[in-house]
Amino acid sequence: MTPRYVINGSLPPHPPTYLSSSIFYDQEIQMESWISEAVIHPQGGASSAEKLPFEDGSVQLLSAATALHWFDLDTFLPEARRVLCVNGVMAVYGYLNMKPLLNDPVKATEVDELFIKYNKVLEPHHVVSRVSLLHNRYKDVEFPFEEVNRYPDVRCTFEGKLPDIVNYVSTWSGYQNFKKVDSKGAEELLDFFRKRLYEIASACNISPEDSTTLYRDFQLILCRKTQDGPFV
């Protein structure tokens, strides 16, 4: 059977080129620039995660990419089960941070500490009930499927630059909310993060202009529907 690939919420960095037919959905249409050349016969549209525009049992693979914590889970999870066929799979994955891969363990620890400090300042501005789901690796989420397999800390490495990390942390909802109430304070925080990150990396002979190896540690959860009908 030709698999369908459904994406809800944030999109992965690299679309699956091996699928012969793919369907991309997000709440906003933001993916045309990379879908058109990456996937054969792509289709796309805008849809809420809680009401997917697919027939019962018509989807083989459904992906919730760094987005599950923003959904109304009481509505989304039964809806995901509805659209999946028997033996269909829902892949849930997300990551918390993007970091440089440093050979010096002391400097790597300093990067970890920098993220902790940055998060601490943003804590009052996060949508805590939502973000905490991801921070807890979705461990408290009960998935209505017969098979649920969890794979913590799946490391993905890729080439990038230090400014990519700074840009990434500036997109966090907590930072954006902080910026709305205190623009100067938010800019000072981001400037502190940037300077400290560059200082740590400089000790490892990495400059902001250098291409270097970055990484994300993903939490991956694979859920398989093995029986038709609602989960019992």
Automatic annotation (TrEMBL):
Transmembrane segments: none annotated. Keywords: Methyltransferase, Transferase. It comes from the Eukaryota. GO terms for molecular function: S-adenosylmethionine-dependent methyltransferase activity. GO terms for biological process: methylation. Signal peptide: none annotated. Residues 47-91 form the Methyltransferase type domain. Belongs to the methyltransferase superfamily. This is Methyltransferase type 11 domain-containing protein. It comes from Araneus ventricosus (Orbweaver spider).
